Here is the input.
Amino acid sequence: MSVPVVSLLALIFVVVISSFLPLNIGAMSLGLALVVGHYIGGLKIADIIKSFPTNILLMLAGTTYLFALAQVNGTLEKIVRYTLKGVRGNSAILPIVFFLLAFVLSSMGPGQITIAALMAPMAMLLAEEAGINPLLMAIVVGNGGQAGAMSPIAPAGVIAAGLTQKMGLTGVSGILWLNQFLGHLIVSILAYIVYGGLRLWKIKATGERQTLASMEIEPFTRNQVITVVAIAVFVIGALFFKMDVGLGGFLIGSILALFKIADEGKAIKQMPWGTILFVTGVTVLVDLMSKIGGMDLFASLIARFSTPLTLTLVTGFLAALISAYASTIGVILPAFIPMAPMLLQKVGAPSTDLIPLLSTIVVCGFLTDLSPLSTTGAIFYANAGQKTDKQKLFRDMLIWGLSMSVVGAVVSWLAFTVLRLP
Here is the structure.
């Protein structure tokens, strides 16, 4: 068996393991990199270590450090509550407001999973109180958070930026962020129509009004006001002054910790160290595959079933299908993004198709994450109210999540390849 085949089998093994066992496959990937790269492939240990994505590590750790501080002192939760209290209309606008709120907050840096954890309890409670289909609320709020996931300062956006930079591609973060928003907006509109959003406009939202009116929220404390200002400085610095998001997060976060604005010890414990190991470890294995021919082999297999016109359709379907059982951030982004230029070359597609292909990969990778088998979907499922038929909700979310492997691929193909949006 050739070394490229072994490396491809190693990645498939990692994906399968991540689907059935609660193991950190980042650690497993690092171990397999030693076996496949050094003992089988003959690479030097130093060459394998060079594949470790230090830039991604610093960016992820810095941003999550800052927002973990904002979470432990209650700033993020209070932002959500004050925004929700301001919604005084009928229940039909609640899913719309939640989508936009989740998008904005996720784009600010915490990422889609943090926003799901913050918003799911209130969103699912208000869905029950206002007579909104819990499936609709879960899909719309979850997609809103994921629509902001490719922000240049959010974890997934940071990872994608690091991967595209390694490919020599710069200045695409904004385009991927916009296309991520468009893809999830289209699907959320579809869910809004299918699962009763339009019918809500005919129903008086007295329960929703009472719930919002009676919500008691304490004013922002001094420390929380300072944290909001710090986040604003961080966002402005990253977006307009080219501040490095990783080192900038450490700088601003450490200032907050120095003046006791938030409990640093609790924040460090809340940082997603497992996810960081997950991402960096898999990135090493994928980079190793590139060095020894495994990624070229994988690209050849996909290209065999594709043409220049259908490449995004096929790749999007595969990315979405794998994402339904594996981590989008930990597996899909580090595995598929570096492979994109190879795929174009294999099918003879022009280089102008690179952005549509990358956009398809990120959009389709995230769309299936509303399955209850994925982290985001599981958070909303777990927070369903007592009146909700949880067995039915689980089945409906699973059907929705898996159907997105087809729907997402078709939507992305039409939007980015056929219509060339944006």
